[in-house]
Specification:
Length: 309
């Protein structure tokens, strides 16, 4: 668990972070969002002591990090940034094993961990472990960056615009991988992004920043349904906010399972988003879809009017 208690940080006259209090529960994903310059990166960088607060306190699992040695603290935290920072003269295996080497793991243990992590991030170990970073695509390098951050099984993963430099399809695939990895490992993730769709896809919780202040927290559906102010509404799409809300809600939340399902084309699964349901209805020229609830093994219907809520 990570707790910010009234944390502030200024650079000269600029109050980059202004009295922020926020708790990120263990095993959850929190997406820090907000316009450029709102203080997201500064808040993140204070967690691994790349910056220190002027006032306030940050606790990791209840312990004030101000009393910890930065090097000890950083070994408990994985850090992924946009400019990946892989060492160019080291193989993928050596890059991923940076922290395990520092922790003096034996070579068999390191090799096994590297293979496991490459599998986890979707890279075939035999073909990728021996390559150098410039022999990989940008998306593959980013996957190696995530594997390296996870190498020593950190309790917390800090990510600062980790997928900002890759094309949209690769970005989506990296986001899916991150969600799957997080579910499997249970690592707490604090991620900075100014991509609204990314925040919605990843964020169990959104923490919205504005001029150094934390102005709203909540699930994507809560924040999008009731933005705290005009700026938050504008950030989440202004007139298109309703479309983003369709991305934040699943078919399960709006489908009707009480009546027999409408017959028709292939069903949509209940974990699909309302946006996907709308896209299917438009593409197929229908106003209802049959719904398959994969968890409960039941069937239902979602209608165009259900999307309005
Ligand atoms: N090392 C620094 N020296 C001086 N000013 C800084 C420094 N780091 C950040 N700032 C200032 O603090 C404010 C917050 O910056 P920060 O990078 O935290 O914002 P951000 O929300 O992450 O922005 P972006 O989305 O553009 O990365 C900005 O006004 C920035 O110019």
């Amino acid at each position: 668990m990570i707790q910010f208690e009234s944390v502030s940080k200024s650079f000269g006259d600029v109050k980059a972070v202004d009295a922020v209090s926020l708790t990120v529960e263990p095993g959850t994903v929190c997406a820090l969002v907000g316009t450029s310059g709102s203080g997201k990166s500064t808040l993140l960088r204070m967690v691994n002591r790349l910056e220190d607060p002027d006032s306030g306190c940050i606790r990791l699992d209840g312990v004030d990090i101000a009393g910890m040695k930065p090097v000890d603290l950083r070994r408990r935290i994985g850090y992924v940034i946009q400019s990946i920072g892989l060492f160019p003269h080291w193989t993928v295996e050596r890059n991923i094993a940076t922290v395990p080497h520092l922790l003096r793991w034996d070579s068999g243990q390191v090799r096994a961990r590297v293979a496991e992590l490459l599998e986890l991030v979707g890279l075939e170990p035999d073909t990728h472990a021996g390559r150098y970073p410039d022999e990989l695509s940008g998306g593959q390098q980013q996957r190696v960056g995530v594997a390296r951050a996870l190498a020593a099984d950190p309790e917390l993963l800090l990510m600062d615009e980790p997928f900002g430099a890759v094309d949209p399809p690769t970005r989506r695939s990296l986001q899916d991988s991150l969600v799957a990895i997080q579910k499997r490992t249970g690592t707490t993730v604090l991620i900075v992004t100014h991509d609204v769709e990314e925040a919605i896809r990843l964020g169990g919780t959104l923490a919205v920043m504005e001029h150094g202040r934390l102005v709203q927290t909540g699930t994507p559906a809560q924040v999008l349904a009731r933005p705290a102010n005009e700026q938050v509404a504008r950030f989440f799409g202004g007139p298109l906010l309703g479309l983003h809300l369709l991305q934040a809600l699943s078919v399960r939340e709006r489908a009707d399972f009480s009546a027999p399902p409408q017959a028709g084309a292939a069903p949509i699964t209940s974990d699909a988003t309302l946006e996907e349901a709308l896209a299917r209805m438009i593409a197929e020229g229908v106003s209802h879809l049959r719904v398959l609830d994969t968890d409960a093994g039941r069937q239902g219907t979602i209608a165009l009017t259900d999307l309005v809520g």
